[in-house]
Amino acid sequence: MFEHLREAWHKATHPFEGFMESLWNIWKVNVGMAVLLARQSWQDIPQSIVQQGLALDAQVRANAQINQAVGLGLGQLGIPTSPGLGFAMNPDQALFIMTMARVGANRGDPPPTVGMEQFAEGVLRGQIDPVQALIACAPEFMRPQFHYTIQALQMTGMSQYLQIIRIAGLIQAAASIPRERIPSFLPGSTAAAGQTSTPPPLPRSATT
Fold first, then answer.
1. Residue 69: how many CB atoms within 10 A of its CB?
2. At what angle do helices 91-105 and 18-27 cross, to 10 degrees?
3. Is the predicted pLDDT of residue 149 greater than 50, yes or no?
4. What is the pTM of this model?
5. Of 48, 131, 160, 166, which has fewest CB within 10 angstroms of its CB?
6. At what angle do helices 47-66 and 91-105 cross, to 10 degrees?
7. Which residues contact 86 (CB under 8 A, 6 or more apart)?
8. What is the tens place of the pLDDT at every residue in 106-142?
9. What distances in angstroms separate CA 203 from CA 63, 133, 136, 158, one per listed residue?
10. How far apart are CA 75 and CA 93, in angstroms?
């Protein structure tokens, strides 16, 4: 019995192996870096992770259709419609698996959010808040709605959901960096400092 408990504990604390375990450990401290490294070595993402992630992604989209009021807006930005994602697993792990599946399925170039490319570097370097960048990428007529939604989440203490939205912004920023620019963001790069630029200002409706 104790052996089964030990194995269950090990699986709970080490849900991934090999390359995926390395990415997961990085993800827990730096989501953007994990996505960039995954894009750089997308061939090393196991097919089993791709299949599992695409299945989870399909379930999220199905859940989003149920909740039209929120899903139609947030779903366009790749944001799940409930804090728990509707799965019997750690939501962060589910989001990690879905993200890695998209990277692997798209050969290292997952479809980015339209408009994020202009904010991506600022988000990854900590100069732009990823949530505000997502709002700025939304259609102009929807930005006030997203802004008020974020305010409501903050006022009601739904920190878990806000964290998921923040992670979604980091994922989209990392997906928007051109492949040839990825090395400049990786640890030990000598090009990173020289290529840093001042990020563009966010639209007024995304910051007020």
1. 8
2. 120
3. yes
4. 0.77
5. 48
6. 120
7. 59, 60, 63, 80
8. 999 999 889 999 999 999 999 999 999 999 998 988 8
9. 31, 9, 6, 25
10. 19
